Amino acid sequence: MKKNKLIIVNLNINHLKSIKNIWNNSLPLNIKSIIGKSVISKYLKKYFKSSANRGFGIIKSNRLVGFVLFGNDSLIVKELIKENYLIIIKSFFLNILKLKISKILNYFNVVFFILISQNKEKKLRNFNELLIIGIDNKQQGKGLGSFLIKNSIKKNKKYFLKYKKIYVKTLKSTPENIQFYIKNNFIFNFSLFGRVYLYLNIKK
After folding, report:
1. pLDDT tens track for 99-118
2. Beta carbons of 168 and 198 less than 8 angstroms apart
3. Which uninterrupted H or E stretch holds 191?
4. C-alpha to C-alpha distance for 134 and 153, rounded to whole angstroms
5. What is the C-alpha separation between 113 and 88, in angstroms, rounded?
6. Residues 107 and 89 sit within 8 Å (Cβ to Cβ)
7. What pLDDT was estimated at residue 122?
8. CA 135 to chain centre
9. Helix, coil or strand: residue 100
10. Where are the alpha helices (DSSP H) in 48-100?
11. Could you tell me the pTM of the whole model?
12. How far apart are CA 200 and CA 204, in angstroms?
């Protein structure tokens, strides 16, 4: 394999450690990153148990440098909250003690969003969701995110053609993320509680 050749691979539980490290380091304000690596690990273990979910990674110089997860994680999130509420509460109060205001506000934001988004997202049941994408900090700004999305869909058409569309939600306060998805042919759908929903038509 050439040193800088980019390879798209199907992810599985064996990639958990690499995914977890990229996730935690590149997405510090993600609620699971705030709570801690143990919750990310538990999420990934549950994620890979479902045959409806698909994760893809990008390998460069024999190392995983980015990942994207597609599927449905609503049941996983509910289970995580139920099974780890003490860890979540402990993390919340630790951030209060450390006066991490942005992280504290993130907890409230996520809780309110979960409560108000359930009915709206029922209309998206026939769609596949791009749940999360992460690129190693040292590899960002090199077009790897676009390469990963484009080639993951292209090389796994059989999986994606079962759905009408792929949708993604991202924070309205991150216009760079919105532009990233628009650049990759996602179309604005609607906004809800500080999130922007975009969708991608799957071409046969």
Report:
1. 999 899 999 999 999 889 98
2. yes
3. strand 187-192
4. 16
5. 17
6. no
7. 82
8. 11
9. coil
10. 74-83, 85-97
11. 0.94
12. 13
